[in-house]
Amino acid sequence: MACKSFKLSAINTSCGSNVPSLKNIWVGAFNSVDWTFTYVQVPDPENPQQTIDYVDEDGNKVIESISGATLKNGEDLFVEFGFRKNTCSADSEMTVNDNGSHYFTNSVNMVFAKQDAAKRLNIHALASGDCTVLYKDGNNIVWVIGVDAEATLETATATTGTAVSDNNQYELTISETSGIMPIPVAAANVDTVIAALTTA
Question: What SS3 state is found at 14?
Fold first, then answer.
């Protein structure tokens, strides 16, 4: 029997601006947040005028977006990483196995100008544990990795450069291997979610 798509619809050409790069990045400990999700809705077979949460063939609900977040008791607040404009990015790459299963490698790539002692210690802190990352892209959409699977610091490179025109910087990549792509935060709930994770 063929696999069925839960919700296949047309993809239209995007109009208006489409801005690359990232604007903000927030990092916190993995499994430190109780998330509230909005799930994909489908018509109720018994009452087509109403909708129900879609459940896939494995019995899992399909997440559409994050609508809320609450830090668990005793967990530290998420911290914001500052960086120069047009230096950070995010990627999601799908891998399909021969048996038909698939997974996504979701990554956030960060560049921090000027090496110093404080940044060095933060890199060591990132390397010592699993994390969750929220990032706002150039189109003001906030995405999250490290929800269903831990995100970890995969690479960290320090370079001084050689010529005056070269960069003195750190380059970091935090990534996760997950069954799903990065999850968006519902636009109407972005400010509430960020505040819940970053404000005492």
Answer: coil
